[in-house]
Amino acid sequence: MCGIVAAYGDIDPEKCERMLARIHHRGPDDTGRVHLEHAWLGHQRLSIMDVSGGKQPIADDTDSAYVVGNGEIYNHEDIRDVLSEVRFATDSDTESAFRLVLRDGSAALHDLRGMFALAMAHTDGRGAVARDPIGIKPLYWARRDGVTLFASELRAFDPEDQPLVEAFPPGHVWTPGLVGGAGDDYAVGAMVRFADAVPVEVRPARLAPDKQWTEEDLGHIRDVLSDSVRRHMMSDVPVGVFLSGGLDSAIVAAIAAKVAEEKGERLPTFAVGTEGSGDLLAARAVAEYLGTDHHEIVPTAEDLESALDEAVTVIEHFDPALVRSAVPNLLLAREAVEHVKVVLTGEGADELFAGYEYVHSEEFSTPDTLQAELVRSIEMLHELNLQRCDRATMNYGLEARVPFLDATVMREMLAIPAEWKLKIHERTEKQLLREAFDGMVPHDIIWRGKEQFGDGSGAKDVLSALVEKEKAKEGAQDAEHPTVEHGWALRSDEEVAYYRTWHRSFAGVRPDRTLGAFATA
């Protein structure tokens, strides 16, 4: 996990250096850059794989091609087996991806299993920039005056560039135009999709109207998720788990604890919540059951209040649901980074197994409509929960990994008949997932009802009170919430308050080009 900056076309090295410095927090271990005639690549490194030798940019054998990368390639050892003729300069997973693309072209991006944003450049003017299919790793770009700029965060861009910034679409690769080509604008280049967030073959719902799942089906779920967690624990540095107190993170912790035990280690886990909050107590019960090395952060109202403005700026978003969960997440990340460099989380399980209450409304009451909504929600994750998850952890140089969103997990879990995920026949939400891991997680946690992280941690009540104080200071609100420039409507007093904070840092950024929003605020 790192931060990257890239520029193609008419390069201003000083601008690139400013951009890289603004994301130093993403990779405090090292800084690297390379300036070619038509490209500039910069890298802030968080050392996780090949700690001593994985410095970036990484060059090919002739120093004619370079790469910088953010993220992890979990099948990098498999790639090295395929590239048996290659002499690798490092043990870095980024080099594995780089060498595969050098050999097979951008079509090889489809074979990468992981989370990534990659930027490559050649001395002859060729290059490529790509983002993983779900958008687990962030990437933004801006095009102006003969140059195309890329960066891992919004805050990297100069104020004059902010109005031009857009989210780089997941599952796409951009290549610059031909240098000196007749009529070609080198910095404009071309964009191609190399993979969908959700595999096309599992988009239609599989019908199973008369069939109930079997123990074999439950075992398959356990095996697929266990393999993913094991891969996601790939690291040369310590790995822990964020325990939210809910089902999903408890399942990840249960699998990870077994993997750690096989290595003769004890899994570190981390939980946050106000004194006596439901999340804190539930996480404690899971940690005791699994025998983990458990760490708790118990913030006061003052702690939460002091983190609020920082949270809005750090996650680069003002959606209330994201901000409420980001505040305790920041406090949790600040503690966890004192013990580990990598944490696993339960992000994505609700989208795969229909965990949100709204998807059990009449609107999504058939297998086909439910499946379509699950696919849509996964395609939107890069603008919402994944953005909050990435920024809140990387603000402290901590890498968060999401094993539920592994490509194989998504393919297999979305191939499950959508009918099995409906709340019918006296089922609760995520009944299938609960049954699959019953016994590996405490019974009370397996059947605990869902709470949003900001609610269960105790943050929601504190932050709501702060919003009321802010309203009183600002004076009476208009009857209707304002619509910001470019048609983005603010939907609640809470969102208005967070938007004001966001606007102070990102005044030039267009939300309609860079952010998403939950259905309600």
Automatic annotation (TrEMBL):
Active site per the UniProt annotation: 2 (for gatase activity)
Gene Ontology biological process terms in this record: asparagine biosynthetic process
Binding positions (ATP): 272
Molecular functions per Gene Ontology: asparagine synthase (glutamine-hydrolyzing) activity; ATP binding
Pathway: Amino-acid biosynthesis
Superkingdom of source: Bacteria
Segments forming domain Glutamine amidotransferase type-2: 2-179
Residues annotated for L-glutamine binding in this entry: 93
An annotated GO cellular component: cytosol
Swiss-Prot/TrEMBL catalytic activity: L-aspartate + L-glutamine + ATP + H2O = L-asparagine + L-glutamate + AMP + diphosphate + H(+)
Principal EC category: ligase
Pfam families per UniProt: Asn_synthase (PF00733), GATase_7 (PF13537)
The enzyme's E.C. designation: 6.3.5.4
Keywords: Amino-acid biosynthesis, Asparagine biosynthesis, ATP-binding, Glutamine amidotransferase, Ligase, Nucleotide-binding
Record-marked site positions (Important for beta-aspartyl-AMP intermediate formation): 347
Family of the protein in this entry: Belongs to the asparagine synthetase family.
Record protein name field: asparagine synthase (glutamine-hydrolyzing)
